[in-house]
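Before going further, it is useful to explain how the protein records used in this thesis are read. An example of such a record is reproduced below.

***
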Amino acid sequence: MDLFNSSPELLRNYLPYQGTVHFHGYVLTSEEAAFYFDHLLHHIAWKNDEAIIFGKKVITKRKVAWYGSQPFQYTYSKVTKLALPWTPELLELKKCIEKATGETYNSCLLNLYHDGSEGMAWHSDGEKDLKKNGAIASLSLGATRKFLFKHKDTGEKVTFTLESGQLLVMKDETQTFWFHRLPPTKVVQHPRINLTFRTIEE
């Protein structure tokens, strides 16, 4: 199937109600995914993530980086980040993702998980800086990991197995009604990079 010639509107919605999740499958070849993974691993300005939990600063093993079209401020977990300027490689990936999804994005939050012991707890991306109900495009590079959604009221779950070069998009009311999570696992010994292309309200 030619992913770029299939209309995003025709893609299956994997959520049963109150939100939209489109799974685009592979938008990069294995060679492209390997190239971008290696380049981003060594050339992105990675920093350990920080969060304020019960008034105390917590430093995570997971590393993050924040890039954008302007020096946007983005606040989550009570910590504010300032966007760095796009790199040429990130702009290439942004163009690819925009073509695949039919959406536009002005920023990208990158996460580096060194192995399966690092994950992300249940949360939703409902920060006030983000465009309300806007699309968040999640590109996976590196190790294969499970990714879960859970409805905030019913507890119903939807599970994905995301491989390197694959794209998943969350949009509409997904962040309002659903949590998502990257569960830790003892099986995965290799790193994963996740790029989430977003739109900050200017």
Notes: The helical segments are 30-43, 88-101, 174-177.
